[in-house]
Amino acid sequence: MLPKPLWITNFKNYEQATGENAVRLAKIHEQVAKETGASIAIAVSPLDIYRVSQAVSIPVFSQHTDLADYGKFTGHILPQLIKKSGGVGTLINHSEKRIDPEILKNTLALAQKSSLIRVVCAENPDEVEIFAEYDPDFIAFEPPELIGSTGASVSSENPESIAESVAKSRGIPVLVGAGINSVQDVKTALELGAQGFLVATAIVKAENPAKKLREFVEAF
Ligand code: G3P
């Protein structure tokens, strides 16, 4: 299991965070992790898992995994291949890559069989409560309407939802995301019981990602 509080930057498919840029940004995360001692991980395009995990020692996550196995599963992302590519975990059910609720539980179980650290994403506290039943390693609470925003965040706009998600998580550590863009956002979420963060814009699109990341994790 990864130490908490856990910071995960989601590289998504931003041009500045894919391909060789993913390696460059990953090395920045590794440097900040070394300097601060903070628990920092990254979630990269599945197409970048191998090249990034070869370049850095920090935990590399996939952004998705499928309920699929060796065989006739064209285009699917297999959990065992995430592992073989150097990935240590995966996001599951991100707002931008939702999984049919009928297969989410089995998708989580299959990822666990490959010993992947599983971060299941929930859009509201009620989903947090439902997904906690599936016993993931982490639950990332991200209200979709705030994802990508720069002036507003879940901490500033709806802090009660963080406290409610923590209360409903049955002890599963809750990561918070969606518009996180200030040290105050980080402090507010931690005070409300969050045990980490899942962030994209504030780091990937920062003028100085290293400086921004350091500011955030030094608030842990
Ligand atoms: O997976 C994290 C992401 O959805 C949050 O996005 O850009 O609001 O930090 P952002």
Task: Tell me what the structure shows.
The chain has 220 residues and is α/β, with parallel strands linked by helices. It has one domain (6-218): TIM Barrel (Alpha-Beta Barrel), CATH 3.20.20. The chain contains 10 helices and 8 strands. Helix 1 (20-36) runs parallel beside helix 10 (209-217) and helix 5 (125-132) packs parallel to helix 7 (159-168). The longest helix has 17 residues, at 20-36. It is globular, with a radius of gyration of 16 Å. Residues 10, 94, 142, 147-148, 177-180, 198-202 line the site of SN-glycerol-3-phosphate.
The radius of gyration is 16 Å
In the CATH scheme, the class would be Alpha Beta
**How is the biggest beta sheet arranged?**
8 strands, parallel
Number of helices: 10
Cofactors, ions and other ligands in the entry: SN-glycerol-3-phosphate
Q: CATH superfamily assignment?
A: Aldolase class I
| Helix percentage range | 25-40%
Report the end-to-end length measured between terminal Cα atoms: 18 Å
Query: What is the approximate shape?
Result: globular
Secondary-structure arrangement, i.e. CATH architecture: Alpha-Beta Barrel
Strand order of the largest sheet: 7-6-5-4-3-2-1-8
Order of helices and strands: EHEHEHEHEHEHHEHEHH
Mean of residue pLDDT values: 97
Approximate strand percentage: 15-25%
Number of self-contained structural domains: 1
Structural class: alpha/beta
CATH topology, by name, is TIM Barrel
Identify low-pLDDT runs. Answer: none
The beta-strand count equals 8
